[in-house]
Amino acid sequence: MRSSPVTREAGEVLKSGILGDIRITKAWNVQNRGFQKPVPDGNAPQGVDYDRWLGPAPKVAYRALPEIRKGYGGGVPLYSNCHYAFRNWHEYSGGKLTDWGAHHVDIACWAIGASETGPSKVTPVNFEMAVEYKDGHPLVDDQYNIATKFNVRADMPSNIELLITNEGDNGILFEGTKGRFFVNRGKITGKPVDDLKDNPLEEDAIEEVYGGPVAENHTANFIDGIKSRKQPISDVWTHNRMLEICHLSNIAMRLGRELAWDPAKRQIVGDAEANSFLSRENRKGFEINI
C-alpha cells in the first residue's frame, strides 16, 4: 500500500495541511470469519510437513473440515488450523486485525509520523471473541478463537486517536480540524482530495512525504534496496513498530482491559500478566539461539 497511487495521493493531501491538525485516524478492516463450531482432528494433506509448519508453536493435532477454499489459497481446507485458515487462531496469528488491519494501521502510522514510536495506551472499547476466554487463554482448543468484532483505540503521539475496527468500509479515514478523507487500495474520497484538482501541490511535495524518490513499482523498489543497501519504502523496522499496535490490541481484548505501553522500553506498564503475552517459549527443536 505504501507504493500505491492512491496512497501517494493521500500523502499529498496530508502534506498540504488542508486537513488542519490531525485528531483521528480510523483503520477499518474486513470482518473476521464468524465460525462457531468445532474443527475436528484429522490428517495433514499429503506432502505437508505439519510438524515443520507448526514450527515454534505448541504441538497440537492437525484440524480440518472437508470444505475446500477456492481462489486465493485454493486447494486448501476452508476451515482448519493450517493454511489458509491459520489466521483465525491466536496460536499462529491475530485474525483480520493482524491481516488486513496491519496494512491499514501501517498507512495510518506512516501518515501521522508515528512509524518509529508507538501508542501510550491501547483500550478495547468493545469486542466479541469467537470463544470464551479466561486469563487471556481460550477455554476450548478446537474452535477459531480470535475476536470476531472489535473497536480498539490506541492513543498516539500529538494527541491523535487511532481507532481500529472491523466495521465499515475497508480502508483508512483521516480526520483533522478542517476536514477529512478516506483512502483504501482502490479509491480516495473527500472534499480535501477534490480541492487538490484546482489547487495542486508543488511537484516535490510527495517526495517530502516519502523522504525521497517515490516508489513507482513496489517489487522493483525492494530489489533496488537490496542492490543499493538502502531501506525500501516498506522496511522491517517501521512495520515491526506498527505490528506492536495490532498485537497489543489483541492482548487487550484477550485480557479484557486497557494496557499502558512504554514505546521506548517496548513493554506494557505495570502489568506482568499482559507482558507475558509479548513472547512465548519456542517449542523444543525450534529454539532461536542469538
What this model shows, in words?
This protein has 290 residues and is α+β, with helices and mostly antiparallel strands. It has one domain (5-45, 94-275): 2-Layer Sandwich (Dihydrodipicolinate Reductase, domain 2), CATH 3.30.360.10. It contains eight helices and 13 strands. The strands form three sheets. A nine-stranded mixed β-sheet has the order 11-10-9-1-8-7-4-12-13. Strands 2-3 form a two-stranded antiparallel sheet. A two-stranded antiparallel ribbon has the order 5-6. α3 (100-111) packs across α7 (236-255).
Secondary-structure blueprint:
Blueprint: H1 5-16, E1 22-28, H2 50-54, E2 68-69, E3 76-77, H3 100-111, E4 121-129, E5 133-134, E6 137-138, E7 147-156, E8 160-165, E9 171-176, E10 180-183, E11 188-189, H4 191-198, H5 205-210, H6 218-228, H7 236-255, E12 259-262, E13 267-268, H8 272-275
Parallel strand pairs: 1-8
Antiparallel strand pairs: 1-9, 2-3, 4-7, 4-12, 5-6, 7-8, 9-10, 10-11, 12-13
Helix pairs in contact: 3-7
Helix content: 25-40%
Q: Class, according to the CATH hierarchy?
A: Alpha Beta
Choose one word for the global shape. globular
**What percent strand?**
15-25%
Question: How do the SSEs run, as a string of H and E?
Answer: HEHEEHEEEEEEEEHHHHEEH
Question: How does CATH name the architecture?
Answer: 2-Layer Sandwich
Give the number of helices.
Answer: 8
Radius of gyration: 21 Å
Question: Domains counted in the coordinates: how many?
Answer: 1
**Whole-Å distance between the termini?**
33 Å
Please give the order of strands in the largest beta sheet: 11-10-9-1-8-7-4-12-13
Q: Average pLDDT value?
A: 88
Low-confidence stretches: none
Structural class: alpha+beta
> What is the makeup of the main sheet?
9 strands, mixed
For this structure, the CATH topology is Dihydrodipicolinate Reductase, domain 2
CATH homolog superfamily: Dihydrodipicolinate Reductase, domain 2
